[in-house]
Amino acid sequence: MNDPNQYAEEYNAVEKEPKRIRILDSTLREGEQHPGVSFTIKQRIQIAWMLDYFGVDQIEISPIISNDHADATKTIIKQGLSADIVAHGRALKEDIDVSLKCDATWVAAYLGISDIHLKDKLRISRDEALNRAVKTVEYAKSHGLKIRFTVEDGCRADPQFLIKVCKAIEEAGVDRISLPDTVGVLRPIGMYNFVKRVRSEVNVPLDAHVHNDIGFALANAFAACDAGADQIHTTIDGIGERTGIPSLAETAVALAYLYKSPNDFRLDMLVDLSRLIEQYTTIKPYDSKPIVGESAYKHKAGTHLAAILRNPAAYESIPPRTVGQTRKVVFGELAGKTGAEYLMSILGLEKNVENAKNVANGLKNLRMGDLIEVPLENNVERKINEEKMSKGRKND
Ligand code: HCA
Ligand code: CU
Questions:
Q1: Average pLDDT over residues 230-237
Q2: Cα–Cα distance, 299 to 334 (Å, whole number)
Q3: What is the pTM of this model?
Q4: Domain check: are 302 and 269 in the same one?
């Protein structure tokens, strides 16, 4: 049999050479903007270590929030991790100075450029904003820093002004530009057009920072990459302001499996990373959350059970172990005869078609939903497969 995903992969393979998309993880900055989330210095350091070991390209943290944050930033920078540590702040000299005090080599500065941000938040004119953006980049460059500039709320800004700002900061030597959908109002093709517009006018590498207010964050991040961005902002479990941004797990798995981006991520850490954040925030990812949710690898319907007992790929896109998950079989009212047989084999009961039918009926009549959950490990899987093969397919 062919690779079960072969034809699907042919639909996905739109580019000749997959390009490498980078990840900036902002759990320590955007993530801390999620209601109820505040890490201790120690936790921030541990999260940074784990993110670095996982293999993200950049880790963002905001030293300007408090002395604690500055301490954490300084300590993390001292560790000499492989990932760049990006110190995030407003487009102000004083914020760059805080980052310099932390010995940052990479900084990010953000400035709202939409009319609503200029008028009702910053109370400055377009010219003042343009000037502030250029001055901030020049200031950072004069201190030997690498700087990313975020044109906050950029997709709601007058496109001509957006391009004017991007060109001016490129001229001033900016190293990256972050193009955000700050309030989550773009559909994927809209994000594509937004990024394409900037891409056609400047050569600076582009980041995609997209909010999930309507649930389009992940799709928009990848639409941005199709239009020329080469770095996606994520947080562990997608936590962030309001409904957050793309989750690290979903982004990294999509990059590896759907986009074939040549990264070197330790995907099997994804569940542990999620559990760590759950422990530090007490926010449990919802049950059906992709990759890390409790139900992401549970199989319940009898027809599904019957198929995955023969070949899990029938109902799984990627094997659970690759992301640090465990496959589970749920025995409930839907388990059917195959499920009942499997349950009996686990309990050490002799195989018997009549009894299996009775057990299946019993499960049905109990009507208690998910009665029992059992991890279906690979060795069990192998045993079942061997058994099946030796007996032929007479029960199919
Ligand atoms: C913020 C705004 C920001 C910045 C994004 C970025 C946004 O909360 O400070 O710096 O890339 O969503 O626009 O998170
Ligand atoms: Cu944001």
A1: 98
A2: 10
A3: 0.93
A4: no
